[in-house]
Protein: Ribonuclease J
Organism: Anaeroselena agilis
Amino acid sequence: MSKGKLQIIPLGGLGEIGKNMTVVRYGNEIIVIDCGLSFPEDDMLGIDLVIPDITYLLENRDLVKAIFLTHGHEDHIGALPYVLKQLTVPVYGTRLTLGILEGRLKENGVANSSLVAVKPGDQIQAGAFKVGFIKVSHSIPDAVALSVRTPVGTIVHTGDFKLDQTPVDNRVTDFHRFAELGDQGVLVMLADSTNAERPGFTASERAVGATFDDAFRKARDRIIIATFSSNVHRIQQAIDTACKFKRKVAILGRSMVNVANIALEQGYLNAPEGVIIDVDEINNYPASQVVIMTTGSQGEPMSALSRMAMSDHKKVDIVPGDTIIISATPIPGNEKMVSRTIDYLLRQGADVIYEATSGIHVSGHASQEELKLMHNLVRPKFFIPVHGEFRHLVKHAKLAQDLGMPKENVFVAENGHVLEFSPDKGAMTGKVTAGKVLVDGLGVGDVGNIVLRDRRQLSQDGILIVVVTMDKQRACVVAGPDIVSRGFVYVRESEQLMDEAREKVKHTLEKYETGGITEWSTIKTGVRDTLGKFLYERTRRRPMILPIIMEV
Amino acid sequence: MSKGKLQIIPLGGLGEIGKNMTVVRYGNEIIVIDCGLSFPEDDMLGIDLVIPDITYLLENRDLVKAIFLTHGHEDHIGALPYVLKQLTVPVYGTRLTLGILEGRLKENGVANSSLVAVKPGDQIQAGAFKVGFIKVSHSIPDAVALSVRTPVGTIVHTGDFKLDQTPVDNRVTDFHRFAELGDQGVLVMLADSTNAERPGFTASERAVGATFDDAFRKARDRIIIATFSSNVHRIQQAIDTACKFKRKVAILGRSMVNVANIALEQGYLNAPEGVIIDVDEINNYPASQVVIMTTGSQGEPMSALSRMAMSDHKKVDIVPGDTIIISATPIPGNEKMVSRTIDYLLRQGADVIYEATSGIHVSGHASQEELKLMHNLVRPKFFIPVHGEFRHLVKHAKLAQDLGMPKENVFVAENGHVLEFSPDKGAMTGKVTAGKVLVDGLGVGDVGNIVLRDRRQLSQDGILIVVVTMDKQRACVVAGPDIVSRGFVYVRESEQLMDEAREKVKHTLEKYETGGITEWSTIKTGVRDTLGKFLYERTRRRPMILPIIMEV
């Protein structure tokens, strides 16, 4: 890299939701901001999760000084269990963030990691970088933005944020610090673009409290609230409202129980003695005195709420009279699952309060007016929109230009782009390896395009396996051909088709026998082509056809 | 059925989007309203489309007098190519509806159907039923509601509708006829619930014309508009705006070309001589004089717009300066595909105008205030909400009750429920077969739960095929075991795993050989269990395992 220049290299989070990760490099020193996962796209069949490709960091492993975390959401910390197996560096984050991370590391058998807790206002020196932590509001407590002082200038990375003027925990965003940094001069800002399309201000988290209040007042029997497991503020408001209406609260769903326990322990969640009860105790109270907080607000098929909706939960049955509050908005791609869950809950006679019909959820991300305020406080010379689909980045870039920033100072980048800055110039100067690493079970990165292509073909029309045992010497069939299919047609009702298919294969094999052809690959191709054509004509389907020749 | 009673039996369209179909029966006479398809759910892998199960109609085939259509959308006519192969009855619909249907029937090789064109205001006697056609507004021209006079009372079925006060074709909804029917007394109303969650009024289609006007004014170069292929009003407004700005219009995408040709022929679409050009001519004009109307507003991977976005279209390349208008809203489930298309178009440097950032689309369905007006005009005694997810039906039912209808007169039903009416009583009296028939290629109904379950398993972790040739007499292995996998792991990088797997199988087979066990099913189960356990331990994946024994 050019001497005396500062590089910012996003390895994830641009042009996508999730998988947030940014590299900052000066000379031979690197720090990393966040290390998140994302969830698989629809065409990534069988994939559990997706993490950033960290080839660049592994190639420069000796230069990496530390990883700094902005908050405890999966899309900011979720790749660490994988990355820390390959890279031994200290990780800095606030207490709740590290509390959640510790659980994840333990689940994944990562020991000996060096986690260092910081507080908003702290400053950490890491090589040439001085990293400061700045309080912001988000849909999880203890979220921070970062300031990074470098020899070239100061970077501000907002992390995920909103400017909630009345946060539930009263810990207001540190406007003063952003203003101070703006006064001192900021070279580059990277800022959350998730809600760059939304005009106005994002409503305060407290608005949900008011809606809870209404809903609790109307509900006669049991109340079940589903939300994101890490939304501690939301859980707090449910507890507060429950206290007001003299109800007990049971928390259900492994991930929410984990987060709630950490948050209670660390004081980010507060409940008067005796309010929180075990889920096994709910039947000791009349329905009118019970609130169940649970997961499944995205309609995830295995979640507690989905199981209840499908009458498949061990401990909770939905009964008429239940009021169910889905306190979340469907993440893009989850709309149909959420909708299906609502329908099943309604079929069971429950009252369901959900987003389309009420103000039961607010976003954790800044809308346009908040973004403008952030830009005007920080007054950066250069700007890199981060966190969002490409169209969010474009929209955020336009917003910055509307505020007066010259077009050439705004960088709508892609993951892996190297953005290089001197005190008065910024440019895209190169590219490094960046991309998606797919995690499937214990396999990290072993499922690639070929495996996915096969899964896609298998998922569409299934597979036909043609097995034949041949005598290599005499080039003749000893057993078979046998045809086995899965996912193609219902075999019991398609005997004729399968018989005809077998005849086709037999006929093809006889041709090769007569011709004395013993090239297995020629025979396989012949079988595949003949059979593929026959089946397409008869069914308009293209199953995978797998000829196997056993040699005796 | 009870003598002198009227039955209404929904066979589709309740608790789901699409696949609309309603049976009306009096004594031994049946008529059917609409006959639509729906698109497969995410878990219906490889399925092309879904049609209603018409077992009930086939069991009563001699009673079915006719099918009546409300409009030409796929979810109202799309199952006819399949149903008319099994059921020979006349089909009544307006001209555009039948024009579109004819194309579908021809594509599917259905000849000799008896299609009868009607006009709004017409009345058709079919057995004991007198069916009237009432003009309504919708996102396709020539849409009608139906009145059905029966010996028990009058039914009103709204079809899909909105109450557009300023429709593009100036054919305003026949409010007078609804009022007249209401005056004369209506026994049962079935009404569109799609937008029952939306407060207020749905904006007029003309609002989109104003947005087009703005967009055309700002665009310097080429304009590309994507919308639903059957939205003739939208195409008309694009043509009108193009004329105003002296641009030519090329229509691209097979389905849109088909509909536009029918609509032009029948006079539902009007374009001055020379305005519509062939897509091959677009390069004869400067970019500033060209508009391309196309399909792909849902991000469908094979559509014209998606191909353009991916630089994969034969005739049109996206270039910086292009303005692309996505004049549609994503249908639930399509959000991510639409979003991906927008991102790729932006990456190519185009300006993209889409729903989240503009008023570039209006719905074709009535919002709450329009629904209320319809209820107050028709004043039915009984009400059945139709067309919508279960939650939309529930919402629409509540709306009817808010308007004063007694709860027991409102029926939130499921497909297959038999709703029976006398002049003063309505009740759910039974159930008939109803459900989804899956169409996959040429197969109608041959893909069921077993095939789908296999496709799902194959799609998640692939398949391992274990082949071994055995000598039945001597109960010993003659060739193999060979293991072939697809969609499980990338084989070239997993040789060790596959070798170990083969050893495991060998070991298992040896055990059986030693034991003299020749029960193929025992051996297969043993192989499957051993291998499944081994692979899960090593990979945390559960591929389908298919042991095949060839006997010599």
